[in-house]
Amino acid sequence: FDEDDATFTIIATLVQSMIFVATAVMFASFTRKPKPWHFGLRRTAFWPAVGWATVGVVSFYAAAAIYSVIVQPQTEQTVAQDLGADQGTIGLIVAGFMVICVAPVAEEFFFRGFFFGALRTRWGVLGAALIDGLLFGAIHWDFSGDGALIVPPLAALGFMFCLVYARTGSIVPSLAAP
Fold first, then answer.
1. Among 65, 90, 92, 100, whose Cα sits 20 to 30 Å from the Cα of 82?
2. Could you please report the per-residue DSSP string of 31-53?
3. Which residues, 6 or more positions from 176, have their beta carbon under 8 angstroms from its beta carbon?
4. Contact 174/164 with Cβ under 8 angstroms?
5. What is the distance between the alpha carbons of residues 140 and 154, in angstroms, rounded to a whole number?
6. Where residue 148 falls among pLDDT bands split at 50, 70, 90?
């Protein structure tokens, strides 16, 4: 397989997303038959959800801006191009679907719905959010060049989304966040 091929990257991303969801469901099933609401897939009050999601996203962008001024990272995200967004209309549609739908749903399901939920029973909300955020940032490490520089902002995003989930009882606001 050519790791630079968009088709390979799409398939690998789909497999990774399925592994995230399957792992969460498998481990959750060790204690009881999991239901969607166990993973934060539930309705929540609309306006409080909008408010908390906005607080989370604005806090993330503020932290990322401060981080960028201090560290001045010279790294660029190439996820969309890696998924074929620059290879015509179909590539753009597929890349958009993967970036907007597939990866975020699988990541929120695993990291907030499962992992954070399990951690907070032992570590409390802030401790669990910190651990979850750090791991969330770490899995996005780009091993080319200065790829480690993207980890802190994404760790902050993971941390903020944990807090949004803790306040709303749902991962839906984080899924809907821009």
1. 65
2. TS---GGGGT-S---HHHHHHHH
3. 49, 53
4. yes
5. 8
6. confident
Strands (E), the chain: none
Total residues found in the chain within this entry: 178
Prediction pTM value: 0.90
pLDDT value, residue 58: 96
Amino acid at 124: G
Q: Of the candidates 106, 99, 100, which has an alpha carbon nearest to the alpha carbon of residue 81?
A: 99
Do 137 and 16 form a contact (C-beta atoms < 8 A)? no
Q: Which of the two residues, 148 and 82, has the higher pLDDT score?
A: 82
Dist. CA 11–CA 15, nearest whole Å: 6
The total of other beta-carbon atoms located within 10 Å of residue 66's CB is 12
3-class state of residue 150 by DSSP: helix
Range 116-151 burial, b when 16+ CB lie within 10 A, else e: bbbbbeeeeeeebbbbbbbebbeebebeeeeeebbb
